[in-house]
Write a structure and sequence with these properties.
Strand order of the largest sheet: 1-2-3-4-5-6-7-8
Distance between the termini: 20 Å
Structural class: mainly beta
Number of helices: 0
Radius of gyration: 14 Å
Shape: globular
């Protein structure tokens, strides 16, 4: 999975833009790809698949709830971001069906982030 996360604004109410490209395989599909974009920034919301609900726990954690458009409020994924002293963020994924996963996001120079 390739993920890009852009955070902006104040700590207590961050603006979030999240883009995800995921490859998958099922019993019926040998290989498929899914692209999704989520945001809570009104001017960037057009064409996105869902909304981000963000809250923080000072000083080093943020909770992002990704909800698909048109789905139940209980359908979605939770991302618990833990900011370290380095340029990395630990990610704990909690899926709507109870699955869990771990990952890591690396900080990129400002000029390389998606527009």
């Amino acid at each position: 999975m390739d993920s890009r996360l852009v955070l902006s604004g104040p700590v207590d109410s961050p603006g979030v833009y999240f883009r995800m490209l995921r490859g998958y395989s099922t019993a019926w599909t040998e290989y498929g790809e899914w692209k999704g974009e989520f945001t809570n920034i009104p001017k960037r919301r057009y064409g996105t698949q869902g909304t981000v609900f963000a809250s923080t726990h000072y000083p080093n954690q943020a909770l992002l709830i990704l909800r698909r458009n048109g789905a139940s409020q209980y359908a979605g994924v939770w991302m618990i971001l833990t900011f370290r002293n380095t340029d990395t963020i630990d990610v704990d994924w909690i899926g709507h069906a109870g699955w869990r996963g771990e990952g890591e996001l690396s900080r990129e120079p400002l000029g390389t982030l998606p527009r």
